[in-house]
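Q: What does the assembled structure look like for these inputs?
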Amino acid sequence: MNEQYPALLVVVPLLSALVVSIAGWVNKRLCFPVAVAALGMAAWSAVGLLLRVLDEGVIVYKLGGWSPPMGIAYYIDYLNGLVLPVVSIVALLNLIANKKGIEQQFPDKIGPFYTLYLLMVTGLLGIVVTGDAFNLYVLLEIAALTGYGLLAMGEERAPLATLNYLYMGTIGACFYLLGVGYLYIVTGSLNMVDIARLLPPLYQSNTVLAAFIICMVGVWLKMAFFPLHAWLPNAYTYANSAASSLIAPLVTKVMVYVMIRLMLTIFTTEFVFTTLALSDAVVWLAVIAIVMGAVLALAERNLKKMLTYIVVAEVGYMVGGAWLGNRDGMTGAILHIVNDALMTLCVFMVVGNIVYKVKGYAFEDLKGLFRKMPFTMGALVVGAMSIIGVPPTCGFFSKWYLIVGAISSGHYCFMAALIFSSLVSVVLFFRVFEICFYEPFSNHHGHDNHPGGMDEAPVSMVVPLLVVAVILILVGLYTGDIVNHVIQFAIPEAMV
Amino acid sequence: MKIIGLIIVVVTGALLIYAAADFPAWSDPASPASTYLSPHFIEKTMEETSVPNIVTAVLADYRGFDTMFETTVIFSAGVVCFFLLRISRREEEEPETRYYRHVLTGVTIQLKEGYKIPPSDDFERIDAAWTPPDLIIKTGCRILIPFVQLFALYVIAHGHHSPGGGFQGGVILGASIILLAISHDLRTAVRRMSEKLMAILCAVGVFIYAGTGALCLLLKLNFLDYSALAEVLHVDPITARSHGILIVEIGVGIAVMATMIWIYNNVSSAGRYRQGL
Amino acid sequence: MTDLISTVIAKYNYWIYITLMMIGLYAMIAKNNLVKKIVGMNIFQTAIILFYVSIGVKKGATIPILEHGHGPDAHHVVHAVDYINPLPHVLMLTAIVVGVATLGVALALAIRIYNNYNTLEEDEILAQIREK
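A:
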């Protein structure tokens, strides 16, 4: 069974999605256990794969028994070996935490919801694990379509926000597909490693340059990199909390992974940083993304929307780090994929708990929450610390690598933007804490019921949240190991 | 917005034209796309999979994994449309007066809330906006639909030797039921193919595909490596690939048919399952 | 000059796909009606399908279905030059399906929006949102 992990990782969630879909029509109570078992199995396979990669190096899995470039192959190396467990564990914890919320919101559509949830995770895992450029597009569309379905079920404005996301997402995916077509027309291959082997003599060709730019723009659209971010805040804010706390941590991060995969594996660092002279321009864009994300977050009076702008700023961190063109910057970017997925999950799960109890997430709804929901707010403090970058939470370490990378490549503006956004995050979160802490009674204008005591969300929601908070600190403490044993090998040696 | 749109279009178009300068000319037999992988597919398909239709062989075998997800894409679209649109019984307000039509005589009766008719096959429920379907259209479609379906089965089964396969056949099958819904009304079509049946068939179709792959995995070969089926089917591994392709094509056909109908039902009636369109 | 003209003619398939794609993109950005945008999106996707399929064409070759598949000539030698490239066709089957699926989901969303606001014109919807 050991050598079948790459297939199981994707196939188990897919098959269970089908089972859940049927179970939704027969016996609704079966849906949740099947979904949890499937994601547990996927997480198990992902961790098993990471351990095998640490042991043996790159794993190649030939689907259908056809060797690449004829057939489709999976390549699991240090880069996706690290991202896979993150994706599967985030999805699993979020599913467990949101069981109650899902049953409360969609009593009649539990089956379809879990089906879409599992298909979305299948798509995301497939994107990360695949070694075929076209296969990635198909999986991208699965993740996107199911994502539209999940996001559109929410408040009144959710369908419109999602339709805008659909337009942007389709343009992004089509640009990626067109870029792959350009690579196909000049190389005749679709396998990532094979394309990388065939490309070097063609580095001067217009087509390769255009393919790179088109793929990048497509991926940036999907990850909401600053000028292309307009769809993200509304789509994530108005969605139901189970969907937004799955999609906000994972989709943008997986797209950053795709960008790094394109840069490192398909086009190689030599082309991206030596042949092209784009890296300064992109780092500047990232600087603008970070600053604008922080400023727009500051303008919000609404916790969930504020967090979505923080997601936009964080995308700027990762894109900028990856484009700094040195080892530290890339290390920071890859490490930040892991950290940001976890901390975004943490804060969005907090919002989920608040919505479950208070039915709102505007700042006025948050009054007195430290007293009412101490565990949830404790987790929010940890998540906020991590986003601000306070040691020993994990956010500090990736920021540290990014700053070191910025200094050694001479991009002081990027460093300044990072520090600026950290300071803004301090303001953002302490403003929230102040509202939650110092104004203990939300209705002191003559209402008689004073809910003075604790009114925490159900245990099944709080425990996964606390687990995430603990993981945030643990990942911070073991950052050195992650960097030295995994990320070091994920970055090609040509990159200094 | 128009000016911004124009600027974006001009810039993108310029980039694409710039890229096209290096492209091989149209129908150039020496282009990399035609000389790198495609000769292998064209020359070896027959001996490696024993399927003369190369597109089918590449679709369902060499790149069968893509196709499995392609089927999953259409399945997820069906689930999304249902999830977004279907109005559940709890939310749906039952109209105060319901209409029933006696099938044999065509007499329509009106029932006020609280009244029921004895359960029998003689009456069918109709909507307030119901109009009798035109005789010519109704009869024409009734004659046409069986042939459409027969043709669909031929397209699925003959995908190995001629243009066709699961997707094409599945769409034609789905279209035959949609034709029934258009020429009669949605309730008639749903009576033939109930909602639950459609929903389950979608999943079953994809399950046949993914399950065949998983079966190969259980038989100690890689996922979707149909040659593993040789043991089960008692044929040589090359023929087993051909049979494997047929099995997954049938799965695809079922999934596509059911999803097409399911999407049509939900979108055309906005999730109410009353008079379509 | 004749060189330029012959290059332009030799690559006419690319100019067609670029034109179509830009029409679709413009419609998606500039149109006000949500369904028109969906139509634009479909044109955009179709342009890419046209691009891929045109890569597969080969002069003097026929459709990629072997003529002597079974029967007495079954071991007839197959020459790659006689058949067009099958791979782009396979890829585009996938892209067509994705296009249909996206269209279905987009229409479902448009119906939801229409139920909420009773209009599909984007500016009217935004005006309604601002009023609230």
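The mean pLDDT of chain C is 87.
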